[in-house]
Amino acid sequence: xxxxxxxxxxxxxxxxxxxxxxxxxxxxxxxxxxxxxxxxxxxxxxxxxxxxxxxxxxxxxxxxxxxxxxxxxxxxxxxxxxxxxxxxxxxxxxxxxxxxxxxxxxxxxxxxxxxxxxxxxxxxxxxxxxxxxxxxxxxxxxxxxxxxxxxxxxxxxxxxxxxxxxxxxxxxxxxxxxxxxxxxxxxxxxxxxxxxxxxxxxxxxxxxxxxxxxxxxxxxxxxxxxxxxxxxxxxxxxxxxxxxxxxxxxxxxxxxxxxxxxxxxxxxxxxxxxxxxxxxxxxxxxxxxxxxxxxxxxxxxxxxxxxx
Amino acid sequence: xxxxxxxxxxxxxxxxxxxxxxxxxxxxxxxxxxxxxxxxxxxxxxxxxxxxxxxxxxxxxxxxxxxxxxxxxxxxxxxxxxxxxxxxxxxxxxxxxxxxxxxxxxxxxxxxxxxxxxxxxxxxxxxxxxxxxxxxxxxxxxxxxxxxxxxxxxxxxxxxxxxxxxxxxxxxxxxxxxxxxxxxxxxxxxxxxxxxxxxxxxxxxxxxxxxxxxxxxxxxxxxxxxxxxxxxxxxxxxxxxxxxxxxxxxxxxxxxxxxxxxxxxxxxxxxxxxxxxxxx
Lengths: 308, 280
Hints:
The structure holds 2 protein chains of 2 kinds. By secondary structure, chain A is α+β, with helices and mostly antiparallel strands. Chain A has 9 helices and 17 strands. In chain A, strand 6 (50-55) and strand 7 (58-63) form a beta hairpin. By secondary structure, chain B is of the alpha+beta class. Chain B has one domain (28-258, 268-279): Ribosomal Protein S5, domain 2 (2-Layer Sandwich). Chain B has helices at residues 2-14, 108-121, 148-162, 189-194, 220-258, 265-279, and strands spanning 40-43, 52-58, 61-72, 85-92, 133-143, 172-179, 182-185, 197-203, 208-214. In chain B, strand 4 (85-92), helix 2 (108-121) and strand 5 (133-143) form a beta-alpha-beta unit. In chain B, helix 2 (108-121) crosses helix 3. The radius of gyration of chain B is 20 Å and the shape is globular. The two termini of chain B are 32 Å apart.
């Protein structure tokens, strides 16, 4: 294969060189093998079907569609699958279930209402969270925080030796999810953004988990979300939905259906394209049920591509 | 021409004469030549929540393979600390054969088929990259007309590739048999019942053989001939499979790029495709 040829005008962003398993890419003496490749007989050979990527002397192949490969700092949405001693197991669309340690969640502590400014209250709440000791009684009531089937948003904290990821929810933005619905799309469609918490003007909040799980929910006002008087355990670990009016329910379903259409057509999800698609869907006055029909989906995708 | 040949055969059948496996003109009961393979169709579209899936047809044999994983192993006692476990389950639909017959999950023949497929893929899938995980392969046999094992293997390969699971190479399988002294490829049920037959699975790049099965007795002098023939046929099937995978990869890569910047990528990909064709 002619990687030398590519060397002259090689622009990683524009040229997609495709390959599939068993195809020789280059010599292993001149290049190093990266993910999605292996070395046999002094040749670097692809092991997955996808695009060839080169960084200096490192050759790797990125599979077009695969499970989520976690990185530290990624925001993920997951579902509790198991409660174990001092830890929860979380399904995060990865090759193994993630682990959420009891020590990496915020626990309700003795709530003190501080009357200082926002910053002061933030500092005190952080201090309190840090100071709060995990007791045996917490272990016994782990199911009151998260139980099997609960959805949560968390951040990848570290990896274990076998590659399993460890999550944490030690921020007021992370924690249990309610007031919405989950949509699963291929993880590759979600790009890294500055913020993965998106508020759409139609009264819908979005959490784009990098693992391909997207949470679409009712908009919560900033002040309520922050919980200025600290961290109200009842609200954070509550299992009850707030009242959601009909207009919001319709908006949530519409956004969800658009995301499903994007997933089916393999279109990357960005806040701008989503908003355009939403506006278009409202203009067309499609019934929400019809927006999943094939022709409606194709028209939507065509519009989004044309506008971008 | 083909159809007239077929009707001839049918007339022969109706007249009660025994069906000839290979007639004087060198044609088989379905109008194929000795070394001719049946039509292959491949559909790699997404099936539900599966990570990878493939619908493979060899003539009238049709198999749907779906792959889930690598994911958390459901049975903890089965996990291996240094590699992934491969789990194969085969489901033979009652309507897949001529006469309707329900096979349970514990049917001995079906279990053996699953075990054969598992051992075929264990050396090919790079399981060491996914410790403590499990890769589930579910096969649904929708129609069968001979060559069930090779259709299952080919469908599984494609499903694993679409799931983005690292493989050393494709695995391409084909069946072959011998009628008196003349070898034949890709047998139908009718031929399978009458002839000694074997299934060969190869890795086309290294020409390594990952599977040879021989359920019936075959004369040792005939074996080499039919075996080599099957290896060549494997290369042909590989070409078809690779083409289907390339097409899907390029379609997905295009739509993935289209969200940001429209067009552009398509022409480049067609060029690379042409290069690959030239390579072959």
